UniProtKB/TrEMBL annotation:
InterPro entries: ATP-dep_Glu-Cys_Ligase-2, DUF403
Domain annotation DUF403: ranges: 1-315
Organism from which the protein derives: Methylotenera oryzisoli
Pfam families (UniProt xref): Alpha-E
Taxonomy, superkingdom: Bacteria
Name recorded for this polypeptide: DUF403 domain-containing protein
Length: 318
């Protein structure tokens, strides 16, 4: 497969996954804003949404001025959902996904192209809406549903060749990054004061985090107990049977890299295998002794380096 074609397919999948992940972050933050006493201020509630996406500095540059120095719900929602100048917004992600797909229409099935093209055309219904006033939950549900539909069409219609492998590779590298960022920010934000442990707000905050990665029912089935922060971390890091966990993502990534035939892929396989072994054989007790934040920061950095190596090995035009 041509590197240019692989590059478009890989980034098409990453952008679709990024849009879905952003919708999940917005949805859970909005739901938390409806809980009394969930946060001390509007800024304390919405700043973590920017931190998860790594957009704090860019947001401050674009939205702060001499008279406005606050993180408001309306501005953060617009920035993460519809701001065309934010390359990580849902608008920008879906537009980039569609442009990448259009460049390689012949490398995918007609059903896959029609799905992503109609996704972008239907997205126009949200232009001009003030999502901070009404319709945010419906908007987020629509983005998540169309992302699920895209993956379903890909899985159900694409030949199991290199094109399909690059679509899946982009999906799981992006998903691993988002899960790690979400857990890192939310874990330290939501660690409750002693008197709040087990309270109604504490329970709802952690259940909202689980729902943001579609893990609430999985948690109940596995642990059959009250929601504990360290068990949430275990579920999202080490459980290979949880689809959005770091372990599950790297089960897929290592398998895909083994399938992709390239004499230069040795370093990619080594980097992915190293991360995979830490997740496969690691113990949550050891991770907490070292520090969850340190573990997740190292993971995010290593996952990004793997993405760079994938680009050098498979996707660079030269």
């Amino acid at each position: 497969m041509l590197s240019r074609t692989a590059d478009h397919l890989y980034w098409m999948a990453r952008y679709i996954e990024r849009a879905e992940n952003m919708a999940r972050v917005l949805d859970v933050t909005y739901n938390m804003s409806l809980v009394p006493n969930a946060a001390e201020s509007e800024a304390a509630l919405w700043l973590p949404a920017l931190e998860i996406s790594g957009n704090v500095e860019a947001y401050e540059r674009d939205y702060f001025n001499e008279t406005q120095q606050e993180y408001t719900a309306a501005d953060v929602i617009h920035y993460l959902a519809m701001d065309m100048n934010n390359p990580s917004s849902i608008y920008s992600s879906l537009r980039s996904a569609r442009e990448n797909a259009r460049a390689v229409r012949v490398a995918m099935t007609s059903e896959t192209w029609e799905n992503i093209n109609s996704l972008w055309l239907e997205f126009g219904q949200f232009f001009g809406q003030d999502l901070s006033q009404s319709g945010l939950s419906e908007f987020c549900d629509w983005v998540k549903a169309r992302s699920h539909l895209f993956r379903g069409v890909c899985f159900g219609t694409m030949l199991r060749d290199d094109a399909f492998s690059f679509v899946r590779l982009g999906t799981f590298i992006e998903r691993a990054d988002n899960t790690a960022r979400l857990l890192d920010v939310k874990y330290h934000l939501l660690l409750p004061e002693q008197e709040e442990v087990g309270g109604a707000v504490d329970y709802y905050e952690w259940s909202a985090v689980l729902r943001s990665v579609s893990a609430f029912q999985a948690y109940q089935k596995i642990f059959s107990d009250t929601i504990e922060p360290w068990r949430v971390a275990e579920l999202l890091v080490l459980r290979r049977d949880m689809p959005r966990s770091l372990h599950a993502c790297f089960d897929e990534i290592t398998s895909i890299l083994e399938q992709l035939s390239s004499s230069r892929a040795g370093e990619c396989k080594r980097m992915a295998g190293e991360l995979h072994s830490k997740l496969r054989f690691g113990k949550m007790r050891d991770i907490f002794q070292r520090g969850l934040h340190e573990f997740l920061s190292d993971f995010i950095s290593a996952n990004n380096k793997l993405g760079v190596e994938v680009h050098k090995t498979f996707l660079s035009i030269s």
